[in-house]
Structure formats: structure tokens, C-alpha cells
Write a sequence for this structure.
């Protein structure tokens, strides 16, 4: 496809409630959006990098900088910047998967709009709707957590994930299990907050019969996760460690995890995310779609991805109102605990101009083919 202009737009969206994890508290999101415009279509990408490099090494100002200085000049050299060429064209730049993913997503949206094909159809979706889980942050007290979980279950969420850290693990898990019963699909996410020395402590979570424990140890500690897996009954799921399809294959070969969280931003785009899905499917390892507090743009792509066959567990693909008072697209709504996969071409959603204008903090336009 032909591209004439790339816009880097920053928006600020307040979260409906602050979200606390073992790495910090997010009260609002400072999000980088990428818009590509050509003669026949436009396309949108959402960069999932957080404001600070605390989930992974990427952060939103760094992503904007690497896109401007290093990634776009490489894409400008392509005569046909189709989404499938983005990964290879950017491969010599080390790292920065979230920045690369945003560019690939924008080009894919534009090219699928021209082809009249949905993201879901392109990726290989086999379902029209996907089951929704909800990720519940660390709270000031257990009663407050129970109220929050109660409200989410009332809305119909089909699975609950509790964020944990040392000092906030066994007690909240036990309280949620006792209050909501054995039927609740429950899991936890530590975002790397533990070490192998905590193995006996983490085994105290086993009696609560959870679906999985996500990323207990450091991102680069596959050996530690493999050791820990032998000491826990709760299956280990990896998030931060799975940075590519190759990393997924390595983690599975080492026995470091039994479940994989897939986030397109973390692995460099939706095409690599599909390869992670395929690697896991070939090994009979279930996957689910993670989230990075996305707007409706990233959510549309995530929901399409989550409709692939081996996404056999509910994802962190929650409804728009779990995050935002006013999403920038038509909101994703929970229906019997599910989100519908968009049916329009490309992402099937686009930003509402007023919502976009209201949340924009800066915008920069680059003509395709020039670096200034
Ligand atoms: O580890 O899954 C994570 C949010 C930001 C960064 C990392 C994570 C999360 C979440 C929220 O758990 C998922 C969501 O609802 O988008
Ligand atoms: Mg996680």
C-alpha cells in the first residue's frame, strides 16, 4: 500500500480507578498512537509502552523517539510498506518491540481496510466473541478488594486475576476464594516480584486451586521458573519472559511454563503474536490474551487475536468501562461475559474525532519518505 503521512499523536486518558501492580501505580495513561494515511485508506496503531520503564525496558517517550529516529527512516526506504515487511525491515534495530508493534498495527489496519478484510479474519479468528477476564490491582485492604471483585463478577466477568506482591498474596487469594467459592476461575500475576527463595511461600497458594500464577520471577530467569514449576502445583504462566516466538519455544522446551500470556506489543506485533500462538498450539500449551490498559484501538486488535483457536482461557480483554469513562472508540461492552470481535474491515473501530481531540496532548506529522 502507499503511505503519504505518519502522525504520532499522544493522548492522556485518566483510568476510572488507579491500577496498582508490584511495579507501581497507574492513575492515567499517556499513550502514543500512530496514524498512517495513504490515498486509499488510513490506519491506526497503539503503542502499549507505559510512561515509565517498569513493566519492560520500553517507555512511551523512548518509543516515540526510536520510531522517529530509527524505525520510520527504515520503513520510508520500503517501496511497499506492507505490514508483513515491517518486522524484517526493522530487525536490525535491537529491542523496542512495542514501538515496532505500533507501526505494524497501523499499516495492517490500513491495508486490511483496503482489502475489506477484518483483523480477525486475517489473523485466523475462529470465534465471533471472546470470554472476558478482569485484572484486579493491589488494593489498600482486603475488604476493598472483595468489593471490587464482587462488582466485576456482578458485571459478568468470567475470570478474575489478582495482582500480587510480597505482603499481598496468600491473604487476598484466600479471602477471594472463601468469599466467591470454588467455582470462581481465579489466577494471580506477580509481575516478577519474587525470587526462587520464595518457593515455599508461593506453594502456600496451591490449596486455592488457581488456574495459574503469572510471572513470579524475573523476566530473564527461565531456569528459575523451571525449578519453581517443580515445587508448585499451581501452573506457571509467563508474560514478561515471552518476548518472541523463539523465546516461547525456549520456555516450553525448558519446562519454564505450562501456559503463555500473549501480548502483541511485548513480542513486536500481531504477526509475531500469531507465531507465539502457533508455537504454543503445536506443543498443546494453552494461551490467553494479555492487556496493557489499551484504548478501544488496541482492544479491537486484542479481541481479534483472542479469537484464534488456541486462546483457550479468558484474557485480560475487559470492557472499555473497566478502564475509561470515555474510550476514544465505540466502547467494548460486556455481553454475557464476552466481548464481540469487531466485524468491520481492519480493526473495525476508529477513534471518535471529538474524543481524540479532547484527549490529545501533542501531535506530530511526518511526510512519508522524509525524515524531517
Ligand atoms: O502484567 O498483565 C500485566 C497492565 C499493565 C502492564 C502489565 C500488566 C497489566 C495488566 C492489566 O495486568 C491488563 C489489562 O486489563 O489491560
Ligand atoms: Mg502480567
Amino acid at each position: 500500500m502507499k503511505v503519504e503521512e505518519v502522525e504520532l499523536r499522544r493522548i492522556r486518558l485518566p483510568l476510572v480507578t488507579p491500577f496498582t501492580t508490584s511495579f507501581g501505580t497507574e492513575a492515567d495513561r499517556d499513550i502514543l498512537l500512530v496514524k498512517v494515511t495513504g490515498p486509499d485508506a488510513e490506519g491506526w496503531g497503539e503503542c502499549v509502552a507505559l510512561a515509565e520503564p517498569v513493566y519492560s525496558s520500553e517507555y512511551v517517550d523512548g518509543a516515540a523517539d526510536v520510531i522517529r529516529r530509527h524505525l520510520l527512516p527504515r520503513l520510508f526506504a520500503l517501496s511497499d510498506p506492507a505490514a508483513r515487511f515491517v518486522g524484517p525491515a526493522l530487525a536490525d534495530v535491537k529491542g523496542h518491540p512495542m514501538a515496532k508493534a505500533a507501526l505494524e498495527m497501523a499499516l495492517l489496519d490500513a491495508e486490511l481496510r483496503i482489502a475489506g478484510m477484518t483483523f480477525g479474519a486475517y489473523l485466523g479468528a475462529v470465534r465471533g466473541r471472546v470470554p472476558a477476564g478482569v485484572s484486579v490491582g493491589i488494593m489498600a485492604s482486603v475488604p476493598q478488594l472483595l468489593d471490587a471483585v464482587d462488582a466485576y463478577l456482578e458485571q459478568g466477568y468470567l475470570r478474575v486475576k489478582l495482582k500480587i506482591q510480597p505482603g499481598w498474596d496468600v491473604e487476598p487469594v484466600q479471602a477471594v476464594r472463601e468469599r466467591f467459592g470454588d467455582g470462581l476461575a481465579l489466577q494471580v500475576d506477580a509481575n516478577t516480584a519474587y525470587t526462587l527463595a520464595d518457593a515455599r511461600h508461593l506453594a502456600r497458594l496451591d490449596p486455592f486451586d488457581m488456574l495459574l500464577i503469572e510471572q513470579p520471577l524475573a523476566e530473564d530467569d527461565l531456569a528459575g521458573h523451571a525449578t519453581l514449576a517443580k515445587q508448585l502445583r499451581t501452573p506457571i504462566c509467563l508474560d514478561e519472559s515471552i518476548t518472541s516466538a523463539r523465546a516461547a519455544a525456549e520456555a516450553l522446551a525448558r519446562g519454564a511454563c505450562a501456559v503463555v500470556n500473549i501480548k502483541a506489543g511485548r513480542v513486536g506485533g500481531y504477526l509475531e503474536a500469531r507465531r507465539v500462538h502457533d508455537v504454543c498450539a503445536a506443543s498443546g500449551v494453552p494461551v490467553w490474551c494479555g492487556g496493557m490498559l489499551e484504548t478501544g484501538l488496541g482492544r479491537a486488535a486484542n479481541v481479534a487475536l483472542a479469537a484464534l483457536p488456541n486462546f483457550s482461557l479468558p484474557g485480560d480483554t475487559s470492557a472499555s468501562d473497566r478502564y475509561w469513562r470515555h474510550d476514544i472508540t465505540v466502547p467494548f461492552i460486556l455481553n454475557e461475559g464476552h466481548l464481540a470481535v469487531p466485524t468491520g474491515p481492519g480493526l473495525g473501530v476508529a477513534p471518535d474525532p471529538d474524543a481524540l481531540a479532547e484527549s490529545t496532548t501533542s501531535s506530530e506529522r511526518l511526510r512519508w519518505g522524509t525524515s524531517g
